[in-house]
C-alpha cells in the first residue's frame, strides 16, 4: 500500500534476548536432557528460522518430573501462604523486569506482533502472578471452606497461542494454593516456558515446585495419564480435550478444560459504530484470530449490514501485516505450517459452500506462514465456516433481524466460550447477556482480559474457570482431608 | 482555492427546521468513550522513525497555525510572529513555512504585512472569541472587521450555551450568518470548544452541525479552557469529516488546537489523520495545528534529524 505517509521500519531490537542453541527439560530445578535423548527444533513462524533445539520429553521424563513435583509438594504445601506469596511476587517482579526480553522472545517463537506481546501478553502475565500472589495467604476467605487444602501435583498442558500467558493462568493459581506443577508447553512454542524455568531459579523457587517438559502430544498424554497426578488442567482443542476427559474418567483426578470456541459478536443497529468496528477487528484479528474466545462470527442487524461492512472493509485496509518485530505491525504470522493448512482448508470450504470471500489488498511475505485478514459474507448458520472453529484471521458475517433471533443464532453452536454485544442501550445489554450461553460476555468491547475475572466455557468449550477467585477452586479441596490421596 | 459551499443536499432537508435538525443530530451513532479513547491510545503507539519522522515533522510545520491570542498582543509581537511563520528556522531555508498566523481581528493588518508575499495565510479569530457571548450583530461586525483587514481565514466560536440548551438551530443559523458575512474570499473554521461540550456524543453532533452549516474546518477548541485538543476528540472529528465526505462528497478540514506542544504529540495526531480520514487530509489545506510553542519543538527535532544531535532552546528563535 503506497502512501504519502509511509511508516519507516521500526523493528524492536532482537539483541535484548539471548536464545541458547539448545535447551533441556526443566526437572527438579535443573535443566536436563530427555531420557531417550530426543530433541526437536523450535522455529520462528515468520521466517522459518530455527531458533533453538529443545529436548523432547517422553514417558520416562514425565515420570521423573511428577516424582520431583511429588517430592516438592510436601514442603511447598506446608509453607505459610504468606511465604508462597513472596515467591509469586518475586516471580511477578522478575517478569516485569524482563518483560522486553520475554516479549521479543515470544514474538520470535510464536509469530505474533511485538505490539501485542509488549502491550497485552506480558503485562497480563505479570498481573496474573501479582493477583494470585495476593490470594496465597487469604485462601481461608475465598469461600471454599475454613481451611481449604491443595490437591497435590498438577499436570498442565497449554497451547501455543499465548504461550507465556497460558502458563501464567495455569501456574500462578496452582502455586498460590500450594500445589506443585508439571507443565507441558506446546511443541511449536516451548521457549518462553523454558525462560520461565530460568525465572523460577532466579526467584529461588524450591526445586521441583515447577517442572517444564517441552514435548509433543505423547508427552501430554503421558502427563495427564500419570497415576500420581492429582489435577489435570488443559487448554487446547476440543478433540484433545475429549480424549483427556476419557483418560481421566474413573480416576480421582480433578479436571478443568478450556477448549475451542466460535464466539458471536452481536452488533445491534443502535451500536456505537466506529467503536464496534474496532471491536470486531480486535475480536477476530487479535493474535491473527488464533484465540479460543475470538469473535469469529459477526452477527450484525440486517438494517445496518451494508453500512457496517463498508466501515469494516475500510478499516481492514489499514491493517499492517508483516514483520512481527516491527512495532507498527498489526497482523503477524500464523503459528505453524499445520495451522496455516487448517485455515486454508476451512476457507476453501467456505468458498466451495458459496460464501463470498473478501480480503484487503495485502502483500504476504515470501517466507514464513502468513494468511491475509479475511471476511466472508453471505454466511448462514449452515455453513461450515459458521460452525467450525477456524482459529485464524477469518471472520464470518451473518445477519439477524431481532434480538431474539440474535440470541438464538449466537447460542446455536456446539461451543459457548465468548460473545460480544454492541448497543448503546444498557437494558438491551443486560437482557441479551442473560440469555447468551457463553462463559464470557463482553459489552461494547471485546477480548478484554483481567486476572480478576473468571474465564471458561459452556458446552464443548470446556468446564471449570480460570482467573479470579473462581480460578482457585480448581486447585483446592474443601476443608476435609479429601485432598489426601 | 475555492471555498466549499454549504452542502446539505445529499442529506436532504435535515436543516429544514429545529425538529428535523434535532432528530438528525440525535440519530447519529453514539460514541463509546472507552472504545474511542482506546483506539486513540492504540494509534498513539505507532513508532514513526527516520524518513517517516522527517516527513511528518515537515508536514507538521507546514500545518501550524502559529498563534498569539493575548490581551498584550502588539503590532511588534505580531510582526515577529509573522516573520517566524515565514522563516521558522533562519539557519535552514529548506524549512517549510507554517500554514498561517492566527491573531485577533485588530492585529490582522499587522500580520498581513509581516507575511506579505510568502503564501502564509492570516487567520483571525472572531465572533467575540473566546466566549462567544455577544449579540449576533456584534459577532458579525467582528467578522467583517477581520475580513476587511484582509484575513484569509476566520476562526469563529459557536454559541455553546445555545448548543447545550438544545437550541441547535440557533447555532446553525449563526454559523450560516458568519459564512455569509465572510463572502467567498475567506475560509471558515468553526470552533466547538469541545472541553465545554464535554461529551463525545456532543462533539460528534457539533461536528455534523458545523459541517452542515458550511464550515471549511472544524476546530476543537480555543486554547482558553482546561481541556483542549486531545487525541480522542480529534479522532472523533476526523471520523466525522471522513463520514461527511462519504455522504455528501464535500471535504472538510480539521484543526486541533491547544495543548499540542511536542513533536511527538504532533506526529501522533498525524497518525490519527493518516489512519482515520486518510492521506487526502495530509495537507495543510485540510489539517492544521492551532499552537504556539509546538513550532519550536518541531524545529529542534528537525535540526536533530539533520545533524544527529540536539541543539537546545537557544538555537531556535523565541518570538
From TrEMBL, chain A:
Name the InterPro entries on file. Answer: Ald_DH/histidinol_DH (IPR016161), Ald_DH_C (IPR016163), Ald_DH_CS_CYS (IPR016160), Ald_DH_N (IPR016162), Aldehyde_DH_dom (IPR015590)
SUPFAM superfamilies in the record, alphabetically? ALDH-like (SSF53720)
Keywords assigned by UniProt, alphabetized: Oxidoreductase
What residues form the membrane-spanning segments?
A: none
Skewed-composition ranges (Basic and acidic residues): 462-472
Look up the domain of life of the source: Bacteria
Task: Give residue ranges for domain Aldehyde dehydrogenase.
Answer: 32-477
* Entry keyword Oxidoreductase: yes
Region annotation Disordered: where it falls in the sequence? 461-485
Name it. Aldehyde dehydrogenase family protein
TrEMBL record, chain B:
The catalytic activity, as recorded, is: 2-deoxy-D-ribose 5-phosphate = D-glyceraldehyde 3-phosphate + acetaldehyde
EC number(s) reported in the record: 4.1.2.4
Which Gene3D superfamilies does the record associate with it?
Aldolase class I
Task: List, alphabetically, the InterPro entries matched.
Answer: Aldolase_TIM, DeoC, DeoC/FbaB/LacD_aldolase
Keywords, ordered alphabetically: Lyase, Schiff base
* Lineage top rank: taxon: Bacteria
The EC class name is lyase
Name the pathway: Carbohydrate degradation; 2-deoxy-D-ribose 1-phosphate degradation; D-glyceraldehyde 3-phosphate and acetaldehyde from 2-deoxy-alpha-D-ribose 1-phosphate: step 2/2
Molecular function terms from GO: deoxyribose-phosphate aldolase activity
Q: Which family does it belong to?
A: Belongs to the DeoC/FbaB aldolase family. DeoC type 2 subfamily.
Name of this protein: Deoxyribose-phosphate aldolase
Native species of this protein?
A: Streptomyces ureilyticus
Q: Which gene encodes it?
A: deoC
Amino acid at each position: 500500500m503506497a502512501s504519502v505517509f509511509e511508516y519507516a521500519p521500526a523493528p524492536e531490537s532482537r539483541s535484548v534476548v539471548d536464545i541458547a542453541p539448545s535447551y533441556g527439560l526443566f526437572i527438579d530445578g535443573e535443566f536436563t536432557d530427555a531420557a531417550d535423548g530426543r530433541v526437536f527444533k523450535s522455529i520462528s513462524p515468520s521466517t522459518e528460522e530455527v531458533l533453538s533445539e529443545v529436548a523432547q520429553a517422553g514417558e520416562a521424563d514425565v515420570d521423573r518430573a511428577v516424582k520431583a513435583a511429588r517430592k516438592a509438594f510436601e514442603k511447598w504445601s506446608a509453607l505459610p501462604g504468606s511465604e508462597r506469596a513472596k515467591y509469586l511476587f518475586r516471580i511477578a517482579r522478575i517478569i516485569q523486569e524482563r518483560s522486553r526480553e520475554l516479549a521479543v522472545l515470544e514474538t520470535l517463537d510464536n509469530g505474533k506482533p511485538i505490539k501485542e506481546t509488549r502491550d497485552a501478553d506480558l503485562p497480563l502475565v505479570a498481573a496474573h502472578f501479582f493477583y494470585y500472589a495476593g490470594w496465597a495467604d487469604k485462601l481461608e476467605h475465598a469461600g471454599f471452606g475454613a481451611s481449604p487444602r491443595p490437591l497435590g501435583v498438577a499436570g498442565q498442558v497449554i497451547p501455543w497461542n499465548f504461550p507465556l500467558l497460558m502458563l501464567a493462568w495455569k501456574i500462578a493459581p496452582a502455586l498460590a494454593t500450594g500445589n506443585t506443577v508439571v507443565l507441558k508447553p506446546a511443541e511449536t512454542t516451548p521457549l518462553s516456558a523454558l525462560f520461565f524455568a530460568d525465572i523460577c531459579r532466579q526467584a529461588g523457587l524450591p526445586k521441583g515446585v515447577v517442572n517444564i517438559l517441552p514435548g509433543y502430544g505423547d508427552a501430554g498424554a503421558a502427563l495427564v495419564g500419570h497415576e500420581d497426578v492429582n489435577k489435570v488442567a488443559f487448554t487446547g482443542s476440543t478433540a484433545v480435550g475429549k480424549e483427556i476427559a476419557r483418560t481421566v474418567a474413573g480416576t480421582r483426578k480433578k479436571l478443568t478444560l478450556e477448549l475451542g470456541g466460535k464466539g458471536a459478536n452481536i452488533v445491534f443497529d443502535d451500536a456505537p459504530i466506529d467503536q464496534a468496528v474496532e471491536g470486531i477487528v480486535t475480536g477476530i484479528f487479535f493474535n491473527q484470530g488464533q484465540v479460543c474466545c475470538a469473535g469469529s462470527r459477526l452477527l450484525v442487524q440486517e438494517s445496518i449490514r451494508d453500512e457496517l461492512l463498508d466501515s469494516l472493509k475500510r478499516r481492514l485496509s489499514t491493517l499492517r501485516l508483516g514483520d512481527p518485530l516491527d512495532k507498527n505491525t498489526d497482523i503477524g504470522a500464523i503459528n505453524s505450517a499445520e495451522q496455516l493448512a487448517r485455515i486454508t482448508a476451512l476457507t476453501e470450504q467456505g468458498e466451495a459452500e458459496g460464501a463470498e470471500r473478501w480480503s484487503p489488498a495485502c502483500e504476504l511475505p515470501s517466507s514464513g506462514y502468513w494468511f491475509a485478514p479475511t471476511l466472508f459474507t453471505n454466511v448462514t448458520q449452515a455453513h461450515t465456516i459458521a460452525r467450525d472453529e477456524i482459529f485464524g484471521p477469518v471472520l464470518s458475517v451473518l445477519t439477524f433481524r431481532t434480538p431474539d433471533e440474535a440470541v438464538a443464532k449466537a447460542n446455536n453452536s456446539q461451543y459457548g466460550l465468548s460473545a460480544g454485544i454492541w448497543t448503546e442501550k444498557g437494558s438491551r445489554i443486560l437482557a441479551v447477556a442473560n440469555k447468551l450461553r457463553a462463559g464470557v460476555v463482553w459489552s461494547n468491547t471485546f477480548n478484554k482480559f483481567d486476572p480478576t475475572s473468571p474465564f471458561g466455557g459452556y458446552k464443548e468449550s470446556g468446564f471449570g474457570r480460570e482467573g479470579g477467585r473462581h480460578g482457585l477452586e480448581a486447585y483446592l479441596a474443601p476443608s476435609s482431608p479429601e485432598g489426601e490421596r | 482555492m475555492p471555498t466549499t459551499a454549504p452542502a446539505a443536499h445529499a442529506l436532504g432537508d435535515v436543516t429544514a427546521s429545529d425538529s428535523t435538525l434535532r432528530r438528525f443530530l440525535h440519530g447519529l451513532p453514539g460514541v463509546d468513550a472507552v472504545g474511542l479513547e482506546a483506539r486513540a491510545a492504540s494509534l498513539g503507539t505507532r513508532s514513526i522513525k527516520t524518513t517517516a519522522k522527517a516527513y511528518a515533522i515537515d508536514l507538521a510545520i507546514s500545518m501550524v497555525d502559529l498563534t498569539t491570542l493575548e490581551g498584550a498582543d502588539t503590532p511588534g509581537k505580531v510582526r515577529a510572529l509573522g516573520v517566524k511563520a515565514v522563516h521558522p528556522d533562519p539557519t535552514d531555508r529548506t524549512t517549510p513555512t507554517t500554514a498561517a498566523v492566527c491573531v485577533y481581528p485588530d492585529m490582522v493588518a499587522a500580520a498581513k504585512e509581516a507575511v506579505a508575499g510568502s503564501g502564509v495565510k492570516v487567520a483571525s479569530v472572531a465572533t467575540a472569541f473566546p466566549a462567544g457571548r455577544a449579540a449576533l450583530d456584534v459577532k458579525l461586525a467582528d467578522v467583517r472587521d477581520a475580513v476587511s483587514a484582509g484575513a484569509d481565514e476566520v476562526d469563529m466560536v459557536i454559541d455553546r450555551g445555545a448548543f447545550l440548551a438544545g437550541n441547535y438551530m440557533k447555532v446553525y443559523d449563526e454559523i450560516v450568518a458568519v459564512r455569509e458575512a465572510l463572502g467567498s474570499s475567506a475560509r471558515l473554521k468553526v470552533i466547538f470548544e469541545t472541553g465545554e461540550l464535554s461529551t463525545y456524543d456532543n462533539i460528534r453532533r457539533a461536528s455534523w452541525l458545523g459541517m452542515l452549516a458550511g464550515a471549511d474546518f472544524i476546530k476543537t477548541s480555543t486554547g482558553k479552557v482546561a481541556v483542549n485538543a486531545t487525541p480522542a476528540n480529534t479522532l472523533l472529528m476526523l471520523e466525522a469529516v471522513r463520514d461527511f465526505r462519504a455522504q455528501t462528497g464535500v471535504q472538510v478540514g480539521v484543526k486541533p488546537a491547544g495543548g499540542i506542544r511536542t513533536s511527538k504529540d504532533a506526529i501522533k495526531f498525524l497518525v490519527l489523520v493518516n489512519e482515520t480520514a486518510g492521506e487526502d487530509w495530509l495537507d495543510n489545506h485540510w489539517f492544521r495545528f492551532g499552537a504556539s510553542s509546538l513550532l519550536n519543538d518541531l524545529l529542534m527535532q528537525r535540526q536533530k534529524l539533520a545533524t544527529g544531535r540536539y541543539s537546545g532552546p537557544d538555537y531556535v528563535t523565541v518570538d
